[in-house]
Amino acid sequence: MSDTNSRFGVEIIGSGLCLPESRLTNHDLEECMETTSDWIVKRTGITERRRADQANGERTSQISTKAIQNALDDAKISASDLDLLLVATMTPDSPTPSVGCIVADRIGAGKIGAMDINAACSGFVFTMSIADALIKSGAYKTIGVIGADCITRFIDYSTAGRGAAILFGDGAGAMIFRRSESQAQGMIAHRMHSDGEGGKHLFIPSSLLDFPENFEFDENAINRVQMNGKAVFKFAVNKFQQVIADTLEDAGISPEKVDHYVCHQANLRILDSARERFGIPEEKLLVNIHKYGNTVAGSVPLVYAELMESGKIKPGDLVMFLAFGAGLTWGSSLWQL
């Protein structure tokens, strides 16, 4: 739960996105592995995903820079108005400098604090809850939060890597959070969870030491996503529904009171299972996975940016942000806009 005794509220004043131009369609995948477009759509709901052109400099820092600049433009403020920049990512350009430091410099934000936070697909939801707490504490007034990943550089585009190849795409989204004098605005409930023991079901090894116990070493798996699809699917369906129920209970509200469920886009079947359990109408849970695939930390802010662009989210709406992913991690952040 958030601190209801805070002197301040928090408002979201801008959002933006950035997507690589290159599209990787299901038919493209048919050319490099044993699969069919119909099979992919039936299992995931995905028809295409974006793929960053790493060779020409399209990296996590680049799409992050464009996403936050678009969010600043939407908020009608400049980078110099930011007090802090947080980047949710599991695919930095390199171990150091952080994407946050690179982006802060590129947008001209000055010498503000900047850092990366890695919670895989849950990263953005975790980070927006952190931003809310930092602003309500009085330490910061305006914080930029980016969710961005270029995960496709870790994908094996062969039949052996098919389980991950059909799912993942690259993308970035960003939001601007600012202190509000209205204490009613901001996060009113949240959850953050992890299960490191389950990390063996979805990981990217960089050396022999990164392979879980009893996992057969394969040098072809180095720097490639390794996923136990059945275990991850079971985890996601269970924890996704559980965290919705827990957050509603924490806030003391029923499912229909929430105006929008802004969900991580991992698999259409997972989203549909939650809609069915809680009776969520389609207009309250936007699905864009068919266009972008699973964009990891970029997923949630991409959904939000599209909702804002279409005018579907209104001031005063109650919005629940939800995610689950590698780590294993899962969480929520319920906001009064």
Molecular structure report:
The structure is a single chain. The chain contains ten helices and 13 strands. The chain has 337 residues and is α/β, with parallel strands linked by helices. The chain has one domain: Thiolase/Chalcone synthase (Peroxisomal Thiolase, Chain A, domain 1, 3-Layer(aba) Sandwich), CATH 3.40.47. Helix 4 links the parallel strand 4 and strand 5. The protein is globular. The model has no long low-confidence stretch (mean pLDDT 96).
Features:
337 residues, alpha/beta, Peroxisomal Thiolase, Chain A, domain 1, four-stranded mixed β-sheet, 10 helices, 13 strands, 31% helix, 23% strand, globular
How are the SSEs placed, and which strands pair?
Elements: E1 9-18, E2 23-25, H1 26-30, H2 37-44, E3 48-50, H3 60-75, E4 84-88, H4 99-106, E5 113-117, H5 123-136, E6 142-149, H6 162-165, E7 171-180, E8 186-194, E9 202-203, E10 226-227, H7 229-251, E11 260-263, H8 268-278, H9 289-292, H10 299-309, E12 318-325, E13 329-336
Parallel strand pairs: 4-5, 4-6, 11-12
Antiparallel strand pairs: 1-7, 2-3, 6-7, 8-13, 9-10, 12-13
Helix pairs in contact: 3-4, 7-8
Average the pLDDT over all residues and give the rounded result.
Answer: 96
Helical coverage, percent range: 25-40%
Low-confidence segments = none
CATH class: Alpha Beta
Spatial order of the strands forming the largest sheet: 1-7-6-4-5
* N- to C-terminal distance: 16 Å
What's the alpha carbon Rg, rounded to whole Å?
Answer: 19 Å
CATH architecture: 3-Layer(aba) Sandwich
Give me the count of strands.
13
What would the principal axes of the Cα set say about the shape? globular
Q: SS-based structural class? A: alpha/beta
| CATH fold descriptor | Peroxisomal Thiolase, Chain A, domain 1
Kindly report the name of the CATH homologous superfamily: Thiolase/Chalcone synthase
Strand content: 15-25%
Order of helices and strands: EEHHEHEHEHEHEEEEHEHHHEE
Output the number of helix runs. 10
Structural domain count: 1
The largest β sheet comes out as: 5 strands, mixed
